[in-house]
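Long-time lurker. I teach an intro course on protein structure, and each term I like to show students one example going from raw sequence to a predicted 3D structure in token notation. This year I'd like something fresh instead of my usual example. Would anyone be willing to generate the tokens for the chain below so I can use it in lecture? Attribution to the forum is fine with me.
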Amino acid sequence: MDARAIIAGLRQGEQPDAEQLSWFAQGLADGRVSDAQAGAFAMAVCLQGLKTDARSLLTRAMRDTGDVLTWGDLDGPVLDKHSTGGVGDCVSLLLAPALAECGAYVPMISGRGLGHTGGTLDKLEAIPGVSTQVDETRLRHILQDVGCAIVGATSQIAPADKRLYAIRDVTGTVESIDLITASILSKKLAASPDVLVLDVKVGSGAFMKSLSDARALAKSLADTANAAGCKTSAYISDMSQPLVASLGNALEVREVMQALTSGQDNRLVAITCALGGALLADGGLAENSNAGAAQIAATIRDGRAAERFARMIAALGGPADFLQRWEGILPVAPVQQAVFASETGYIASIDGEALGLAVVGLGGGRQVEEDRIDPSVGLSDLLPLGAAVTPDVPLAVVHAADTASAEAAALAVRRALTIGAQPPVLAPLVHERIA
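-- Reply from a regular --
Happy to contribute to a lecture. Here you go:
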């Protein structure tokens, strides 16, 4: 087998076969394929594209370069969810314990924040003592005992993807839907879920800004995962504004705990119930998605999901009494500063990406992988789209390490929020579902 022949065929529009893709993926993992060849491969895919069969073959080939978990000893379905990322998106922290309370097992391998979106692992590790890096033995123990575990990928999960992702980042091929699909699913399918649901975000706070781009990605992900043997559906959900009123790691955990302990029904709970309902129905734990959504809502409303979440936190090294003392346990920034507008009107639009980058500027996110995160900083009490604005009503509250960074973030917030004379027409929370 020769990398040059595979690349040449791709460049001419040929679809590589299973043997070629398996060899190339293994070459990425063990170094037989050079960086130059990997970059040329990525560019050829970016320019010529892959059909569903070849995309599925590449995904499975990349998955099979590392560990593939099996769950034959569990007495319920293994369910999982992946989000393409957005600002204020803390659904996983709510969904995993709710699913576990409904009889599912949820080994959720998640990621860290990079760019304007936050990372699920960073949010969890804002809780003192929590460590999301566990080995397979510990993961299995937590899953058996608690029913859900949100953890980071080990170095043995899809190593070909880690190499190809880094090369895509420096070769201008990150936007390829084929390569995005293979990257996401090679890691997700390594956890061997019986059922997967994908939450593809669209809007100013998402990577996909247009509905057509989001639909193309959602269809690619769903088609590829189903072709690989995992029952999968995808939702396209709105990210024209943050999902919750807070951005930042500890602040988003506060939003989750308020949802788990207050019984409130908001956008976070609504999308959690929609995604969870689909998973329970497809996993055989509910008659249909509406019945499944009602089951998820019940576990949140009566406190069972909160108790399950606290058990997971303790199993990951966090405080055993987190449910009772979370308000005093989560870190708090030393500077809190309200941001006011200078005019009257309505919140007409929100630049979610700009808000996410403001949190990064405060120290709450990463510019590069090595950056350290301050879990306490961020934004809270952010006014939603359509809210009435007057000069004496805060647009948001900045949580910062010092006054200078608070002032810079306040300026960014004012620039990110457009105030108009009329409230906007609000987009639906869920645009569509792709089965």
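Some talking points for your students: Residues 211-227 form the longest helix (17 residues). The first strand starts at residue 79 and ends at 83.
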